[in-house]
Design brief:
With 247 residues, this protein is mainly β. It folds into three domains: 105 residues, no CATH class; 54 residues; 77 residues. The chain is 2% helix and 49% strand. The chain has one helix and 21 strands. The longest helix is centred in the first third of the chain and has 6 residues. About 13% of the residues have low confidence.
């Protein structure tokens, strides 16, 4: 069964993927997402967006298809996978390694641009950075003078904010445990340099392949909020993997 994602929701869902050239689509830069590449050996390929009783929900472009597989517990939400048909028609999932995280686009292939600078003004309708206004649909929880990176789309009616990353609030967390939640989400536990303990899930723009995360890896977490519980809980707009020579 296929489910088609329509309208603004489909346009705003974000994936990162590799590519070499951005073709034009009605004057808008687009790039072929990894999730709709023609992998001949797969019945379907894309991102896992849900685990339900009827099967695994996998999104490719703006279409979600559902597959009953025999190894779903080995995979996580947001993981890039391909569906393989084996003996007697049985289906299973295979991990697809993601690359090219610096190229940012929606699941429909529309290129997402970005600008970095200090916030000059914030209102209910826009955020102003480097002398230019970027349209928002909600008040950004950020103050004047903050160093940010604004990701935005332009469909010919102005620059519209997709996400705002606070470059002044990045927490480096070293992973001590990786587990799988009941809904299939990856759950991480770890500590910052001061010994503060956190439980969180990979979320926001992920600049790494979650299937390759290991205990001992350090993530740079662009936090949007931190709940002062124990361990602390957090939400983030972006996460990057910190290499050993950058720690």
């Amino acid at each position: 069964m296929k489910i088609i994602m329509a309208g603004a929701l489909a346009s705003m869902l974000i994936l990162t993927a590799c590519g070499t050239e951005a073709p034009r689509n009605n004057g808008i830069d687009v790039i072929e997402p990894a999730s709709v590449t023609n992998y001949e050996k797969y019945e379907w390929a894309g991102k896992i967006v849900g685990f339900e009783a009827e099967g695994v929900h996998i999104m490719s472009g703006d279409v979600i298809d559902i597959f009953k597989v025999d190894n779903e517990n080995d995979f996580y939400l947001s993981q890039e996978v391909g569906v393989i048909k084996g003996e007697e028609g049985k289906l299973s999932l295979e991990d697809i390694k993601e690359t090219g995280f610096d190229i940012n686009h929606t699941n429909m292939g529309h290129m997402i641009s970005e600008v970095t600078g200090k916030v000059e003004e914030v209102t209910e309708k826009y955020i102003k950075v480097n002398g230019k206004k970027y349209n928002t649909y909600e008040t950004q929880d950020i103050v004047k003078g903050t160093n940010v990176t604004v990701e935005y789309l332009n469909f010919g009616e102005g620059d519209n904010v997709v996400s705002v990353h606070n470059n002044d609030f990045v927490i480096n967390i070293t992973i001590s445990e990786i587990s799988r939640g009941e809904n299939g989400a990856m759950l991480l536990s770890g500590k910052d340099k001061d010994g503060g303990e956190y439980n969180f899930a990979p979320e926001g723009r992920l600049m790494f392949d979650i299937s390759e995360l290991e205990v001992g890896d350090t993530l740079g977490v662009y936090a949007t909020s931190v709940m002062e519980s124990y361990p602390m809980q957090l939400n983030a707009s972006k996460m990057i993997k910190i290499e050993n020579d950058e720690k």
